[in-house]
Design goal:
Blueprint lengths: L2 H14 L8 H47 L2 H26 L15 H29 L6 H23 L6 H30 L3 H29 L9 H9 L4 E13 L2 E10 L5 H17 L7 E7 L1 H10 L1
Parallel strand pairs: 2-3
Antiparallel strand pairs: 1-2
Helix pairs in contact: 1-8, 1-9, 2-3, 2-5, 3-4, 3-6, 3-7, 4-7, 5-6, 6-7
Amino acid sequence: MSPDVEHRDCCEESEQSSPHSRPTSAEKSLASDHSHSHSHSHAASSRGRLIAALSITATVLLVETIGGALSGSLALFADAGHMAVDSTGLVIALIAAHLSLRPRTDRFTWGLARSEVVAAALQAGMLAAICVMIAYEAIGRFMNPEQLDTRIMLIVGILGLAANVASLLVLMGGRSSSLNMRAAFLEVATDALGSVAVIIGAVVAHFSGWLQADALASLLIACMMAPRAITLLRRSVAILMEETPPGLELATVREHMLHVQGVEDVHDLHASTIATGVIALTAHVTVQPELNEHERSDILHTLASCVQDHFPVTITHSTFQLESPQHREHEQLRH
């Protein structure tokens, strides 16, 4: 069976269902309360994970800064700088996780859920800046290498790797719950690779005497940071610019809605991501003029069910404006 036929059958089945099968207002309230409390429990869990990861990252930052000063290793300083950005990013993520729990108001009708997206964009900007600084310093070290204490460099690198692995284990369970948690997990994962680069640089410099291995390790850390900064920035900007959510084809949604009995046209169709797991859709729907209030109510119910259940992306909020053909003509004249 083709997707179009399946969609049409689903809509027609919903259209023909008894009004008594629809959820009552009490059932809707219970579902809403369950969803609200589920969201709060996710946010609280995210906060706990972020606090634990921040504590570990801040400790590693201090150790690597001291180790870099004692050993003369740019790679350790680079990784410490990366850790500083990550610590700041985790603080921002922690604040965003707290703000996302704030209730909706007349001024902020979606609450502060989108703060996580703004936080991710800020982290991307900081990563890009530190990446450029590391690359600049590393190029200078290639031309003028400095003496290194490779033993300190190696010990600190191993400690940093162990701490990063611990942070990854803490964040792993929540990395799919929000953009913020995903960003934090990716930051610590890159930190772990940075520690591996420090260890390899220390081993090469110690056994071969090639001091530029430290600068090369620094460049590798910068190169690992760059793609993550670009990806985070691209995803954040896409949400802030209200790009249609990935995986949702508006042409398919429109065609699906047109199969609902009584619908003549669908226009001004928009879909956007408010925050992780919160996707909104709005549309103007032209219906047959002879429909009574009960039939129009049935159409609203069917449309809401269709867009919520029949697509790869779950649409959590939908708003439809039902119009007569005459109103549609009036809109065309106005525009």
